[in-house]
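Schema walk-through. Below, the input block comes first and the output block second. Nothing else is stored per chain. Lengths vary across the set, and this one has 423 residues.
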Amino acid sequence: MQSSQRARMAIFLTVFVDLLGFGIVIPILPLYAQAIADHPSHWMESVNHLLGLVGIGTTPGALWAGMAMVSFSLMQFIASPILGRISDQVGRKPVLWISLVGSALGYLMLALTSRFEWILAARILDGITGGNISVAQAAMADSSTPEERSKVMGMIGAAFGLGFVLGPAMAGVLSGSDFGHHLLATRGWHLPFFVAAGLSLAASMMVLFWLPETLTDEVRARARSHESRGHALIRALKRPGLPQILGVSLLTMAGFAMMEGTFALLVHERFDFHQREVGFLFAGIGVLLVIYQGGLVRVVAKRIPERVALITGLVLMGVALPLMPKAPWMWPFLLLLIPLSWGSGMGNTAGTALASQLTPPEEQGSLFGVINAMTGMGRIIGPAVGTFVLARWGGQATYTIAGLTLGLALLLALTISRHKAVA
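--- output ---
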């Protein structure tokens, strides 16, 4: 196997194993955090009173579930550009390994706690070291030509999709298993989070022993020589076309994260679904992502320009989101997951490919760090706004705002013009 092909396969498997752990946590964390927040400590009660979340019809637990999501995203927003820049200078492999070990420790803390304060601490730790996807994207870009970017970024998306098929399904099985119930009842330990920690640790071992370094000595030397040129975000904003792409990334993730942070709460309220059912629904979304990223993306990349694919993805998501709180179970609700998932895959793949084509090789790590910082900011804004609106005014208001946010991203995407790729 050629070195570039080996690197791509190693990165794909690493991201897949890591996303298994992430996929286990995402569907059950909101319900888990909400259940703990139903027995708030004194400082949490003070915050509930301050925000007016104590009356009939309010659900303060939804806000605290959002905080569990936001704490991770805030730290990731701060750390991703830094980790991306470090990876440009020292290589992808060591940074990717450290970030995976940090994720494993964060999941282990979640497994062992039943206090909300420790949930926040675990998510903060995971967020600080959670720049692994941006580094993996940069490693994929290292091992490909500009013309191949949509295809290889589709591999990252496929790893995401597979992780979101098996991860949430595993979450449903583990949380409902006899052994999981026994651990929780006798020890207060959470089996799904233990498994997530083990998977991230396994991914770190895969990086250590199998992944070749994708960044050449020459490119690393050029990256070090350019260190004084300013913050990665400032440099990215100076490149034609990138400010619009970064703005689209921010708005798209904000809208999608409003859904992601409230989805479990919405289906619990509407259909009385619990961790097992929510896990299987997220697995269904993962299946749809795999179908797109594992196959359809190749057709789209060959036949549709990235800018058109980006706009189409935003339209699909913007239409699906406001309809979700109205759709009855079962088929109408499930059918809406198709444009939501495929629109997300299409938009994310096309956006990262466009951005990568506009950035020189020695700044790919910085670029993906900046993109992930923008999506990280979206993951701060989205769950914070979404869970607060859900707590005060319900699901329809939340998903309408999410759809309008995607509409703003669409308007910004329409201003992106064609630019020549940077070699």
